Structure formats: C-alpha cells, structure tokens
What does this fold into?
Amino acid sequence: MPSNATSKPHSTDTPEPLRAARPAADPGPAERVVHLAISGTYSSGKSTTTEAVSVATGIPRTHAMTSREILKDLVPGKQVQELSAVELLALGLRRLEERIHNEALPGSFVSDGSVIHEWIYGEARMRVGIHPGAGVFHKVLTELAGLPVKRFYRQYMDAYGRITKDRAKRIYDAFVHLPVEFEMREDGHRPVSEKFRQMSDQLLIETLEEMEIPYHVVRGSVAERVGQIVEIFDLPLVMPLPEAVEIAERRVAEASALLEADARRHEAQRQKSLRRRIRYALRY
It folds into this structure.
C-alpha cells in the first residue's frame, strides 16, 4: 500500500527486533512482546489511532485517565485552567503513576501517549504560561504571581524530564509519532492554545531525537495510519482494518461526549463567578 510514514534518523524501515516473551531460538510473531508508544499532541488523533491499532491487532491498549477524570478525585469541582502550578504537577504525577502501573503488566501493549507526554506538556507550560488557553490579562497576573517560584519549577521540570526520558528508553521498543494534521477541537476540557499545541509537537520530536529511540512519523487518515503501523511493525490482524477503525471511532466519540458535557457544566458554573476567576488568576 502507499505509505505516508516517514522514518527518522533513529528509525529504520525494518524495526529493530522486539523483545521476546520468553527465550527462544526463533520466536514467531505470536511470541513477540511489542511495547509501542503512539506519540502526538492534543487533537492529533492519538487516542483513536491507538484504540484502532489495539482493536485490529488484539494488542492491549494502555493509557492514563484523562485530566478531567483525575480531577474529580484530585481537586473536585475544578477545571484544568483553574489549577495552580502545584496542582498541575500533582495531575502530571498521577498520570505518570497510572502509565507506569499499566505498562508494567506482562505482555505486549500499545500506549496512548507515553511517560514523556506529561513532562512535555509541563515543559511547554513553562514556556507559554501555565494556562495556555487563558486570556492576556489572566496570563499576566499568573506570571507575576509565579515570579518568586519560577526557578524552583524550572529545576523540578528538568529533573522530571530526566526521569521520564530514562524510563522511556527502558520500556518502549519504538514510537509512532502523529504530527499535527487536524484542527484542534474546542471541546471545553482541553485548555490549550494553538501555540501550545505546536510547541508540544516540536518538543516531542526533539525529545525522540535526543533519546535515540526508533520512531516513525505516520500521516494520513486514521485508517491510513493504522495500516502503516501494522505494516511497519509486521503486526498480526484479528479483524479487518475498516471494522477496527469504525469500532475505535465510536468508542472514542462516546467517551469524548461524556467529557465535553461535564466540561460545559463546570464552565457554566465558573463563568457565573467573576470573583472565582480573579482568585484563580492570582495563583501560580
């Protein structure tokens, strides 16, 4: 089939041998253990592509809960754009904890994102502001409030990055990166800007280059992407690709609809209180 995949310097058209599930002289396809991470920033189609690969191949999909789901327990009643820097760090650590737990289970997996993603988003926030989707007035107030602690957070993010990159190099066989090809969805639970999204995408590529993990840049529709991933890594199929993509798109759409409804309800409550909005703008 025509391929839109781009192999980068640390990637080859034929992937490096993947780890075997148990010692064997000549392991067959069923005995391979595949640890594959699907990389991409907000609205890149990462979740749908990962789910479709999982459904098509039977390889389990691993992921962390969404920010909205975690916040229900971590800081009930708040949206991401209302979090302080400390609360954002706690959110990132909770998602990292989930990924490490899920990816430590035996057998193959295809990961929706990776352990470096939360660090990438934190690093991008350090550069464009902790609330990328906020207005200018809100951003100025927040930056002023954060001046006394900026140095600490810079050092923290540097340490966080070293830890997550070291783990990524140990756990993943390869990455598939999905570049920004689709418009960002204004769904109410992704408080980011286009500048933040583009910066995150650039940082992801730079980090993959730095880590020297094999990776492939894959473009096109979800069906085209899945077909390329299956071909690149010689993955077995348990159902036809069109059927797998249809199932994945339905599942992701249903999950997104629930999150968007919850986000709209919280946004309506937040807009009613100017005092609440100012209070969060003055926090870092």
